[in-house]
Design goal:
Layout (H helix, E strand, L loop, with lengths): L1 E5 L2 H12 L7 E6 L5 H11 L15 E4 L5 E5 L6 H6 L2 H5 L4 E5 L12 E8 L5 E8 L1 H15 L1
Parallel strand pairs: 2-5, 2-6, 4-5
Antiparallel strand pairs: 1-7, 3-4, 6-7
Helix pairs in contact: 1-2
Length: 156
């Protein structure tokens, strides 16, 4: 696990762009954090880093899934409004997770038993001073390798 602190939207975008340099087709990034913690801003950084248009990346709260054209497709999920696992199943989430794009899931804790076997978990916490603390936890060897590269890029 690594922890990275963001003191601004610009910092959070930069963290996302650093992450984008390491992800590949089929990768799954699971974001967890309270409202306003920076999940969508981090997603925007990842999308920009992969070549998507900045203005296209918005929270998919009301449509549940947004797809962005980039180096390869980006599937941006927002599970905030879903309360039942069956609702997620009806979305056809597996078709996205195991396709040729990167899946980024906001409110990933709602996946429960549908959580993939391997993924990169990003837990975001808001400090009292307003800074955001991003805790990156790899689940699976592939994501451990990604995390090592991210740590090198951000720290140097």
């Amino acid at each position: 696990m690594i922890k990275i602190t963001s003191f601004s939207v610009k910092d959070t975008l930069a963290i996302g762009m650093a992450l984008a340099r390491q992800v590949n087709k089929g990768d799954i990034i699971c974001l967890v954090g309270e409202l306003g913690s920076g999940k969508t801003v981090l997603t925007k950084g990842i999308a920009i880093g992969l070549g998507a248009k900045k203005e296209e990346v918005i929270s998919p709260t009301f449509v549940l899934i947004r797809e962005y054209e980039a180096k390869f497709p980006i599937y941006h999920f927002d599970l905030y409004r879903l309360n039942e696992v069956d609702d997620i199943i009806r979305l056809g989430y597996e078709e996205y997770f195991y396709d040729q794009g990167v899946s980024i899931v906001e409110w990933a804790d709602k996946l429960k038993q549908l959580m993939p076997l391997e993924y990169l978990k990003v837990d975001i916490q808001i400090r009292k001073d307003g800074a955001r603390v991003f805790k990156f936890k790899p689940v699976g060897r592939h994501y451990k390798e990604i995390l090592e590269k991210i740590d090198e890029n951000i720290r140097h």
